[in-house]
Request: fold
Amino acid sequence: MLQTRKMMLEIAIKERLTLEEIAIRYKKVENPALLAKAFLNLFGFISEKSKTFSLLAEEDIASISLQKLHESLLLFEAERNFKFITYFGNVLHNEFRTEMQKITTQKRKTIYNTTPIMETDSFDDNCLVDSEFKEVLDNIDLTEMENKYCKLLASNWGSNKDIAKLLGVSVMTLCNMRKRIKEKLEFAL
Reply:
């Protein structure tokens, strides 16, 4: 994001203009210097807006912001009696939210639809080969179900879907269980 800002500083027009004035000029001539000026004027706003979308990389934030800024400058209608920043803020927020949904959907697909590594219909309490890991689990206050889940994960038993079926719970229950385990272990599994 800072690299994009630095690049924009080099090409932006030096004239003082409001965002509304930039939009009016940009509609007539899609001048990159005007886009750069608008980006620089909105840099702090974009940075603040992006804070709630922590999974987005800075490069993605800069790219999305420039794309939506370009579109917003072309589509903004100054006659409607509202500020450009309000219009752009809504457009940007919606796009960030859409991108986050794509990321979390992909992440969920990865977590819940991994290919099973081993086919079996029963839980073997001795599925762990690493006695050190078993010792760590025994020293943490896990429920019996959480303990079984950890052991199945550690032994690469299968996908979350398969483990949920084996344990007789839903995949969502496993997700909640995983959150509780993370809190107890104080590190991500």
